[in-house]
Design brief:
The complex is a heterodimer. Chain A has helices at 2-23, 30-44, 73-85, 107-110, 122-136, 138-141, 168-180, 190-196, 220-233, 295-301, 380-394, 405-408, 447-464, 478-482, and strands at residues 63-69, 94-98, 114-115, 159-163, 185-188, 207-211, 216-217, 237-254, 260-273, 279-289, 319-330, 341-343, 349-352, 358-362, 409-420, 427-430, 437-441. By secondary structure, chain A is α/β, with parallel strands linked by helices. Chain A folds into three domains: 57-155 and 214-318 and 422-491, FAD/NAD(P)-binding domain; 159-213, no CATH class; 323-420, D-Amino Acid Oxidase, Chain A, domain 2 (2-Layer Sandwich), CATH 3.30.9.10. In chain A, helix 1 (2-23) packs across helix 2 (30-44), helix 3 (73-85) packs parallel to helix 9 and helix 3 (73-85) packs parallel to helix 13. Chain B is 49% helix and 9% strand. The chains are: A alpha/beta, B alpha/beta. The complex binds flavin-adenine dinucleotide.
Chain lengths: 492, 257
Amino acid sequence: MFRGAVRLCAARGHLGRALSTRSGGSTLDWAGKVSEIKKKIQSVLPGGAWNPLYDTSHLPPEHSDVVIVGGGVLGLSVAYWLKRLEKQRGAIHVLVVERDHTYSRASTGLSVGGIRQQFSLPENIQLSLFSVDFLRNINDYLAVVDDPPLDLRFNPSGYLLLASEKGAAIMENNVKVQRQEGAKVCLMSPEQLRNKFPWINTDGVALGSYGLEGEGWFDPWCLLQGLRRKVQSMGVLFCHGEVTRFVSSSNLMETISGEEVTLKRIHEVHVKMDHSMEYQPVECAIVINAAGAWSGQIAELAGIGKGPPGTLQGTKLPVEPRKRYVYSWHCPQGPGLETPFVADTSGAYFRREGLGNNYLGGCSPTEEEEPDPGNLEVDHDFFQDKVWPPLAQRVPAFESLKCLVHLQVRSAWAGYYDYNTFDQNGVVGPHPLVVNMYFATGFSGHGLQQAPAVGRAVAEMVLEGHFQTIDLSPLLFTRFYLGEKVQEHNIF
Amino acid sequence: MAAPRASLHLVASTWNRGTRGIRGLSSAVAPENSQRKGRTLLQFLANRFYDVEILREYLFRKQISKVHKENRSFTYIKERYGPYIAGAYFVLKQGGAVKFQGKEWIRSTGRGYFSPQLLNFQAVPIEAVDASDCAINYEGLDNLLILKELQSLSLQRCPHVDDWCLSRLYQLADSLQELSLAGCPRISERGLACLHHLQNLRRLDISDLPAVSSPGLTQILVEEMLPNCEVLGAEWAQGLKPGPEEQSRDTASPVPA
Ligand SMILES: Cc1cc2nc3c(=O)[nH]c(=O)nc-3n(C[C@H](O)[C@H](O)[C@H](O)COP(=O)(O)OP(=O)(O)OC[C@H]3O[C@@H](n4cnc5c(N)ncnc54)[C@H](O)[C@@H]3O)c2cc1C
């Protein structure tokens, strides 16, 4: 009987919460109180705590205002900003569902940690500028009383992008936009390049653009752990499990032009617990899709893209996992401490790693060469055939690796880009039809550096209903339906 | 200037220790209490600690904003009297010293920082700044980066100067010849890598940097990166016995001219 009563209240609470969450007000409602009291009574009752049949401590809560799918850097950043921008302490209950607490396949830990403002799209530049400011003040933003400060290990060494004759005009244009947005980037002629970086061979290079401030690379784990620590201290709950199902209701509506559309609202998220058949339904008002490379699947679970092709209902979230390799090698005569993150005209890139003449690098394959994303195995031939030749041409010192290449490649790994096949840019904000699902995904290789800003944008959208700090409306989902690409040229 | 800051730290740390102690106690006591005396006491304590935490967070934020406040730019002074006076005013206010071209060193007097004679130097560039032990940070650096004739800069033992700050020094690349970063607790090899922009540098002091992971190797790499520059690093400091050197510096800086 008691259970029944709780259910009843829960249903009522949900409505109230759905409303109050939208306005960002207080949500400590009746249902929350009942379950709290219930828990308290249970823990005080003799024997209540240890009965294994009823031990539910590993389960997520039965209700949460916001459920975030994916505990990577983007999911955590959304959680952080939701808590930070809430009007009143403890006003919003946030649950982060992450299926793998070791993050063994998550992109965040497998990235190379670069941050740059050298993008072509003003929105990307703004996101990155905001993020670099966040990272610089990370110990103000993510400070937790009594915990040691974070050591982000930021290398402010800059990015050096190289352009061939063909790409020079575009590069010049991009740099103009970057400067307008406030980024500190300079253009360099081949001669200037040779003077500054004597180890570079400028054959085939017409122009270089070099970031002077706020560019470089940092430790992605530090950002991830720092966010985790902070959001936990802010009262965000974590749950180890996989989101397998959404329970939603539909509403048939008609647009002004007489078209029929089905509006959906997710009411429950089913979280399957690790290594068991058990699952827990979590009632929620809002779902954030921050499942990285797997966010396309999560969108599908919510019914996104399941409709006749060419309609809004039939428009999929075009994000899929794409495997990218990173190789690490040692070269005793390689470039020194001044080495920036170099992106070659060929698309291959490398950067210094630590002090001992170690380097990291890779290259995005062409569309035809895309490896099977089924596993994270590394293809070592790819280094021999695609990565090393252009880099050895650019930096003759690497040539000495030729016969030693097997010895000198120290390690390699693969990770998944959360690749947006439509225009290689992020997807931010709500879905037009599944009205309470919000996206923070699709950043195709620049999601780590933009996470602090994207989290804020999504939180603003959820709490205020519009973007405030940075206008990301070009990155809304509707562009896939309208066919409006917001192309980013600088993806590698 | 240094003394009040130190005592402030002391207060913060004892404060921390105090609450940590009480917190440790609460976790030790809680399980027994919850069964015998009911939950009210625990609830009470938990509420108190929540408040304490908020209070400490507030104090922490205040400390941060104090540093920020000390480092804002004096836009008004800059507009009215030009970059040199603004820079000098900032450095003196922070407790440092400045040297206008062809003039004597001017040090902070501790009482009024802004002596009217400063205004005579409006058109005289600043060639050297000694900001040792100052609370200068990333934002505060704005006030120095506008000094385009600056040849010598000392940032010794500045607690807030970090790698991010070093990444901005390229703006002084045309003039800077001498730079001392000795004893800065937050500078690492990652920031030193940015100094390759400063190709006019003749003398660089990177001794006694606790955050640099391998000082020997770092010094070699910095020397390679700046072939025309004399780099004073770990060995140099050991060889010359830093003790008395440090002392003489210490007595030199706080004494007003
Ligand atoms: C080799 C490589 C290099 C990169 N280099 C850079 C770089 O230099 N700079 C940069 O900014 N970015 C870089 N990136 C991109 C960056 O890593 C990603 O864009 C970013 O980490 C995405 O963060 P995320 O939180 O969305 O994804 P993830 O970190 O992948 O997090 C998603 C999480 O969702 C979880 N999840 C998925 N499905 C479910 C489910 N059904 N239920 C529960 N949990 C689920 C996953 O377990 C995962 O932990 C690189 C990526 C790769 C692969």
